[in-house]
């Protein structure tokens, strides 16, 4: 993750915007909204399937009426944006495409709600904190047939900035003091970028349904690699830097998970997040460092990702790989991941060593990746091999002549180049949905005015608002210093963590989803007004 990649989930910058840098019911309707492809079977390829336990269910189609189509085509048929939208809508109605979805057994689970605890059954009170399904079902009822957007309000801003002239005096230094122009941003922030990494979360829900621990490890490895794929075409810009105390939530009612993140520290800049679903729990905090080497920028991750699969009691950890942003002088910037990423099942001892092929002086890496899976602690016997590319597809090599794809990246929208190369899942992250906006806390990123102005193409307004927000944040810091008080995050706490590289990590302390359900968020600072 990097400020160039668009995920921005590993290395961040200060308030001056410096550069620190399945199983759906298989079941689920094939007429899925196009924005959901990245989090559903369409993005998971022809998967390794547990045929004996493959579920089946009823379809709940959400197709549009012909009358709506006629009105849509008549009113906007000459619009370039409408042409792109028609391509999307035609795709999800194509019989071959629908059949491919139906055959893919990795659609995310729309399971029955979690079994209610005995105390809940007795009192009739829903424990939203303990039941992600309760939150997901509630939001499904709220949004109904609402169709999230598949484009942005305005096309990409022009980023005509001499980056090398900004960086050339800082060779070999940590890039924590280099202010970057607003037009180097993309219209999501670092909290939303962490959420973006869950676009392929059905891989985790599939893993939880498998009996063999190596099968589960295989799909967790595929998920870890899939989260890197979003960086392939996003080397030009960085995400917005959240204000201290800023939060972001997403309740994904289609693929079935919920997510909350908070900026918990400003110096150093740290974002913490937690996601859960009936089939997994994930948490991480993002911290790291970056250095400029003249022709490239190196981005080094220093914190772990934690994943739990509740059906088996598995606890996986891994540290995301370092990244190199190349082509700073030529202007053709590319992202390469380097070294090895080791994914460990702390419960069983199984591990997966993921090796990234780095580009040479005269050869490209082709984003190649190889995964070697070992069963049990201290084993040196390679049980399975996965090969492919971190930006495109990962396959399980069952024999020298047979390879089975377990994950395939979703193609970008046809007009993605005009919209920051966002995928369908990313397009919706900053959308303020009328049916659910009253459930959000005032600290949610969707209410941030400078980012909203930037997304809408009002660059001058965004510059002014950004300056005002940053000055107000500095004023709050001066007030805390004068009072001798420290900032205390609302939803996350730092504690000892033997699995993390530095022995400490941020974890979710609970309370957010219960507060959301009862409209009882605590009073906090007004982030958006001075």
Walk me through the structure.
The structure is a single chain. The chain is α+β, with helices and mostly antiparallel strands and 530 residues long. The protein is built from 13 helices and 20 strands. It has helices at residues 66-76, 80-91, 95-103, 118-123, 132-143, 163-167, 190-196, 202-208, 213-229, 424-427, 449-455, 459-483, 512-517, and strands at 185-189, 238-240, 247-252, 257-265, 270-277, 280-286, 288-292, 297-301, 304-309, 314-319, 322-326, 334-338, 340-345, 351-356, 368-374, 382-389, 393-399, 402-408, 492-496, 504-508. The protein has a twelve-stranded antiparallel beta sheet with strand order 3-4-5-6-9-10-13-14-15-16-17-18, sandwiched between helices. A hairpin with a 4-residue loop joins strand 7 and strand 8 (297-301). Helix 8 runs antiparallel to helix 9 (213-229) and helix 11 (449-455) packs antiparallel against helix 12 (459-483). The protein is globular, with a radius of gyration of 22 Å. Residues 1-78 and 88-119 have low confidence and may be disordered.
Keywords:
globular; twelve-stranded antiparallel β-sheet; four-stranded antiparallel β-sheet; disordered N terminus; about 25% strand; about 525 residues; 13 helices; alpha+beta
């Amino acid at each position: 993750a990097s400020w160039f990649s668009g995920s921005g989930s590993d290395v961040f910058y200060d308030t001056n915007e410096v550069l620190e840098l399945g199983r759906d019911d298989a079941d689920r309707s094939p007429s899925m909204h196009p924005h959901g492809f990245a989090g559903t079977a369409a993005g998971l390829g022809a998967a390794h399937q547990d045929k004996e336990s493959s579920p089946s269910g009823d379809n709940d189609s959400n197709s549009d009426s012909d009358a709506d189509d006629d009105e849509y085509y008549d009113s906007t048929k000459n619009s370039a944006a409408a042409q792109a939208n028609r391509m999307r809508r035609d795709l999800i109605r194509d019989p071959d495409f629908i059949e491919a979805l139906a055959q893919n057994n990795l659609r995310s689970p729309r399971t029955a709600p979690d079994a209610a605890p005995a105390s809940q059954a007795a009192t009739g009170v829903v424990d939203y904190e303990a039941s992600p399904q309760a939150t997901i079902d509630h939001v499904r009822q709220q949004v109904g047939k609402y169709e999230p957007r598949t484009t942005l309000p305005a096309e990409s801003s022009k980023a005509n900035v001499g980056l090398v002239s900004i960086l050339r005096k800082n060779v070999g230094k940590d890039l924590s003091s280099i202010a970057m122009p607003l037009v180097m941003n993309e219209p999501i922030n670092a909290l939303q970028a962490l959420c973006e990494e869950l676009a392929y979360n059905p891989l985790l829900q599939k893993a939880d349904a498998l009996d063999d621990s190596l099968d589960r490890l295989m799909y967790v490895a595929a998920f870890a690699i899939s989260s890197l794929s979003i960086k392939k075409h996003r080397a030009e810009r960085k995400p917005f830097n959240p204000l201290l105390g800023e939060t972001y939530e997403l309740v994904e009612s289609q693929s079935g998970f919920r997510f909350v993140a908070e900026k918990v520290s400003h110096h150093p800049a740290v974002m913490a997040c937690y996601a859960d679903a009936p089939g997994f729990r994930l948490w991480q905090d993002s911290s790291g460092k970056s250095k400029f080497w003249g022709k490239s920028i190196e981005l080094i991750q220093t914190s772990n990702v934690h994943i739990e699969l509740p059906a088996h009691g598995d606890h996986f950890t891994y540290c995301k790989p370092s990244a190199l942003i190349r082509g700073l002088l030529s202007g053709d910037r590319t992202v390469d991941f380097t070294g090895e990423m080791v994914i460990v099942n702390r419960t069983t001892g199984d591990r997966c060593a993921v090796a990234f092929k780095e580009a040479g002086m005269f050869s490209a890496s082709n984003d190649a990746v190889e995964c070697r899976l070992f069963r049990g602690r201290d084993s040196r016997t390679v049980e399975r091999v996965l090969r492919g590319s971190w930006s495109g597809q990962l396959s399980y090599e069952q024999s020298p002549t047979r390879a089975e794809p377990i994950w395939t990246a979703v193609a970008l929208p046809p007009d993605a180049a005009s919209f920051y190369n966002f995928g369908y899942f990313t397009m919706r992250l900053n959308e303020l949905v009328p049916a659910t906006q009253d459930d959000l806390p005032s600290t949610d990123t969707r209410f941030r005015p400078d980012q909203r102005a930037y997304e809408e193409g009002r660059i001058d307004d965004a510059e002014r608002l950004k300056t005002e927000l940053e000055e107000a944040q500095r004023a709050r810091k001066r007030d805390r210093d004068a009072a001798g008080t420290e900032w205390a995050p609302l939803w996350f706490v730092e504690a000892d963590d033997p699995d993390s590289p530095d022995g400490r990590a941020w974890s979710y302390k609970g309370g957010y989803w219960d507060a959301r359900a009862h409209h009882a968020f605590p009073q906090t600072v007004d982030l958006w007004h001075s």
